[in-house]
Amino acid sequence: MLTATYTLVALSVEQTNMRVSLHSVQQLVQKSYARLSALTEGQADYVCDTLRRLYESCQGRKLDRFLLPALRRAEARAEPLLCELDMLSRSAAEALGAACRLAAGSIDDDDGVDAFCRAVERFCTALEMRFDREESELFPIARTAIAGEAWFAVANQMLAHDAYREEHRGRSAPPASRISRAEHAHRQGIAAFYVH
Questions:
Q1: Burial of 42 from C-beta contacts in 10 A (0-12 / 13-18 / 19+)
Q2: Which of 23, 34, 95, 138 gives 122 a disulfide partner, CB atoms 3.0 to 4.6 angstroms apart?
Q3: Cα(47)–Cα(96) distance, integer angstroms
Q4: Whole-angstrom Cα distance, residue 37 to residue 14?
Q5: Nearest C-alpha neighbor of 96 from the set 64, 79, 118
Q6: What CA–CA distances, in Å, run from 88 to 74, 78, 177, 184?
Q7: What is the rounded distance in angstroms from the CA atom of residue 193 to the CA atom of residue 191?
Q8: Average pLDDT value for residue range 1-10
Q9: How far apart are CA 71 and CA 142, in angstroms?
Q10: Which ranges of the chain does DSSP label H, i.e. alpha helix?
């Protein structure tokens, strides 16, 4: 169980880093942008770029790359929760798409600013809800459902991934497994959704 504890702590650290970044952009929009009557193209683009990076980082987390495939192999009863987590990710992608579409035009009145800020808030809320459910529901299920040797495999994949990233800074690591590659391809489709 020590390996499971190590793995879940490492995933929690990753969650915390994501939450800090999410909170920063949320605070910027709530405290600065929401009070404006118009946004410059640079302001809107900055937020959209930040949200896009956050979304992509969320989809590339170790949790998604290594823990979820192990859990899918180990436990069928987790599938409804995994579907709900996927729906929260889709909600975030849709909110990101809405924010980017607004940013592509001009946000030059109160209504436009309000719509943009609401889209950003929906994005942040969806990801926060996903993180909360992962920590309160997914981690306990994983702890009991994944067998000891599978935890070793997950921890080993995570360490190998870290070593690969350290060795190849600036390049993205290849997907870990055939399932992860399929999920990666699916995410690329989602990425195309909010870019267009």
A1: exposed
A2: 95
A3: 10
A4: 36
A5: 118
A6: 23, 16, 24, 17
A7: 5
A8: 80
A9: 6
A10: 2-31, 41-59, 62, 68-74, 79-104, 110-133, 139-145, 148-167, 178-195
The DSSP code for 169 is T
d(CA 139, CA 101): 35
Q: How far apart are CA 1 and CA 137, in angstroms?
A: 18
d(Cα 152, Cα 129) in Å, to the nearest integer?
28
Residue partners of 49: CB distance under 8 A and separation at least 6: none
Question: What single letter denotes the amino acid at residue 75?
Answer: E
Q: Which two tokens stand for residue 101?
A: 């579409």
22-55 pLDDT, tens digit each: 999 999 999 999 899 999 999 999 999 999 999 9
Q: What is the pTM of this model?
A: 0.79
Can you tell me the distance from the alpha carbon of 118 to that of 99, in angstroms, rounded to the nearest whole number? Answer: 9
